[in-house]
Give the backbone structure.
Amino acid sequence: MTNDIQRYLDLEQYLHKNTKLGVVSGVFDLLVPGHILLLKKAHRYMLSNYGFRYRLVTLMNSDVSVEAYRPNRPTIFNEDERKFALSLFTEHSVLLFDEATPQEALELLDPDVYFKGEEYTREDLPELENLLSTIFVPLTTHPLHSSDVKAKILNLANNNHI
């Protein structure tokens, strides 16, 4: 577990009693419209269902985690740059985790709601296996994913267009 999550849990016991916790997780290695839309929709969901008695945490794979999760996936930005960029689009906390999946972080945080893109089902997410009371909300996002952007850039580079 990374220090980010432990510091958050230490503060949590004092600051956020009687609020609902929503969590979004991902690599966020190249911020695309789908990521931003996911964060906005997660905020909108929490606000419409819980009023101002909520907080939203974004769990982001650290560089160590990306290497464990997708060994040959190049990341464009390091974790500090990604965390900064992501913080521009979320008003709550951005926390790093080092494991291949966010399972340990999710079990520690024990969220009320977990958000992912519409391409996922609860069965696709082993990190939710032990969180039976967590509501899973797949959100419709923008069809352009960071993998698509990387593929287009590589295609342009391979064809000497850049």
Q: What stands out?
A: The first strand starts at residue 20 and ends at 26. Residues 3-12+19-158 form a domain with the Rossmann fold fold (CATH 3.40.50.620). The first helix runs from residue 3 to 15.
